[in-house]
Amino acid sequence: MTAADQVIQNAAGIFDTPAQAIIARCTQSGVHLRLDGESLKAKGDRETIAAWNPMIQRHKPEIIAALTGAESEADFVNTLAADSEELTACIIELCQLAGYSPETQNRMLEARRNLYPFQYSTECAYFKLQAIRAKAGTYWNSVEPSHNTGNATTSTTTRERAAGHPARGRA
How many other C-beta atoms are found inside a 10 Å radius of the C-beta of residue 164? Predict the structure, then answer.
């Protein structure tokens, strides 16, 4: 299995709905979503909130339903194209930030074609989180096997781990 295939395979995790994936990935990036009356509020770093805002707004009815336990009346058809575009942008951004080779980026973009439309938002949430982590310099500190290339018994910096990643040598 290629590194790009492994990243795609690890991406969505197990979520029943896109809203659950978005809420979980936001939380992992330090943005906490809650309801204040009927309003959806986000708490966290402003820059990180701004990065999540387009996706949160696009899936707001679903997120509110998930937070209240109600049924969602979201119009998924209108969000698919935007999710697909944002997923593509997030993959490209992550590849640039992580220093992946053009070949790896192309494999990741090709793997995106194998997704079912209902997977776009969960995959997009995953790649959004990874891009946020890469910007913050924590991408290589991941506990996910496909990203953690450092030796578990030694302490290495993010830069040292990034330099040792197999995709870095092909950039």
Answer: 14
Question: What pLDDT tens digit does each residue of the chain (171 aa) get?
Answer: 677 666 655 654 566 678 888 999 999 999 999 999 889 999 999 999 999 999 999 999 889 988 988 877 666 666 888 888 999 999 999 999 989 999 999 999 999 888 888 788 888 899 999 999 998 888 776 534 443 333 333 333 434 444 444 444 443
- The Cα–Cα gap between 112 and 65 comes to 28
pTM: 0.63
What phi and psi values does residue 105 have, to the nearest 5 degrees?
Answer: -60, -45
* Sequence-ordered list of residues with C-beta below 8 angstroms from that of 38, at least 6 positions apart, any chain: 64
Reduced to 3 states (helix: H, G, I; strand: E, B; else coil), residue 74 is: coil
144: number of Cβ within 10 Å: 10
Give burial (CB, 10 Å; 0-12/13-18/19+) of 18.
Answer: buried
For 55, residues 6+ apart whose C-beta sits below 8 A from its C-beta are 22, 83, 86, 121, 124, 125, 128
